[in-house]
């Protein structure tokens, strides 16, 4: 079974400096039909205006992934990390027993466009942690590249969540097929462009929620960038 959720059906918040689409209930957006999917709890598509950002704030017991599409995201946390995340990189922060961080767009005249992703942790109360890694375009072109996993398989970023995250780029005749594990959930989020997912056309911001399907087929991309989540039920 596959259910489509169109981009325009998401929650939306305009704070002036921040414009954000919410795939699941978050902050002032509440929809009991969309509280998460498996252990995926948040996907916020955020646009941060130049010279602004999120001030210091705390998190606990959540795996937080940042995926930048345009611009740069400056990150600073109570663990001593101070980094800038750019397109092609995946950042993971394990909030664990508690962490404080801030995120800003320090560029002049350039909006930072990124996805903020939260996954429920496999273990609570762990020591907070941080990881960041770049994945070259060639590794994602016409295929699904594992970018985050519980065990760091294939050089992916390790995370404290029972989930696997894949990223892919598809255009023209490029296509990929993946077997879906029985008893798991699959969430497909189209970051940009157009893409056929199991025969259904998705456009930027759309998602496909998949259960009890044996395979995932991606094809007919037009400048497509996609994230695929393998999730616990």
Describe it:
The chain is an all-beta fold and 233 residues long. Helix content is 0%, strand content 58%. The protein has no helices and 20 strands. The protein has strands spanning 2-5, 11-14, 18-22, 40-48, 52-59, 63-70, 73-77, 82-85, 89-94, 99-105, 112-119, 129-134, 144-149, 157-158, 163-172, 176-179, 185-197, 200-203, 207-211, 215-231. Strands 1, 13, 14, 15, 16, 17, 18, 19 and 20 form a 9-stranded mixed sheet that branches. The chain has a 7-stranded antiparallel sheet with strand order 2-3-4-11-6-9-12, with no helix packed on it. A 4-stranded antiparallel sheet has the order 5-10-7-8, with no helix packed on it. A hairpin with a 4-residue loop joins β7 (73-77) and β8. The protein is globular. The two termini are 14 Å apart. 36% of the residues are buried. The model has no long low-confidence stretch (mean pLDDT 97).
In short:
This protein is an all-beta fold. The protein has strands at 2-5, 11-14, 18-22, 40-48, 52-59, 63-70, 73-77, 82-85, 89-94, 99-105, 112-119, 129-134, 144-149, 157-158, 163-172, 176-179, 185-197, 200-203, 207-211, 215-231. 0% of the residues lie in helices and 58% in strands.
Helix and strand layout, with pairings?
Elements lengths: L1 E4 L5 E4 L3 E5 L17 E9 L3 E8 L3 E8 L2 E5 L4 E4 L3 E6 L4 E7 L6 E8 L9 E6 L9 E6 L7 E2 L4 E10 L3 E4 L5 E13 L2 E4 L3 E5 L3 E17 L2
Parallel strand pairs: 13-14
Antiparallel strand pairs: 1-19, 2-3, 3-4, 4-11, 5-10, 6-9, 6-11, 7-8, 7-10, 9-12, 13-15, 15-20, 16-20, 17-18, 17-19, 17-20
């Amino acid at each position: 079974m596959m259910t489509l959720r169109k981009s325009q059906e998401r929650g939306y918040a305009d704070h002036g400096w921040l414009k954000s689409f919410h795939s699941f209930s978050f902050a002032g957006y509440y929809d009991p039909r969309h509280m998460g999917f498996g252990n995926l709890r948040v996907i916020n598509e955020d646009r941060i205006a130049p010279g602004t950002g999120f001030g210091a704030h705390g998190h606990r017991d959540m795996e937080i992934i940042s995926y930048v599409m345009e611009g740069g995201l400056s990150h600073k946390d109570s663990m001593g990390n101070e980094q800038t995340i750019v397109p092609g990189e995946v950042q993971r922060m394990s909030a664990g027993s508690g962490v404080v961080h801030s995120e800003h767009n320090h560029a002049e005249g350039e909006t930072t466009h990124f996805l903020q992703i939260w996954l429920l942790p496999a273990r609570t109360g762990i020591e907070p942690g941080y990881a960041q890694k770049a994945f070259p375009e060639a590794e994602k072109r016409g295929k699904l590249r594992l970018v985050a996993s519980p065990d760091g398989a294939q050089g992916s970023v390790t995370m404290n969540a029972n989930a696997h995250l894949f990223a892919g780029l598809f255009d023209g005749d490029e296509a990929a097929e993946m077997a879906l594990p029985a008893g798991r959930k699959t969430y497909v989020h189209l970051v940009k462009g157009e893409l056929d997912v199991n025969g259904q056309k998705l456009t930027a911001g759309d998602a496909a929620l998949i259960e009890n399907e044996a395979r995932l087929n991606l094809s007919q991309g037009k400048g497509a960038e996609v994230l695929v989540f393998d999730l616990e039920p």
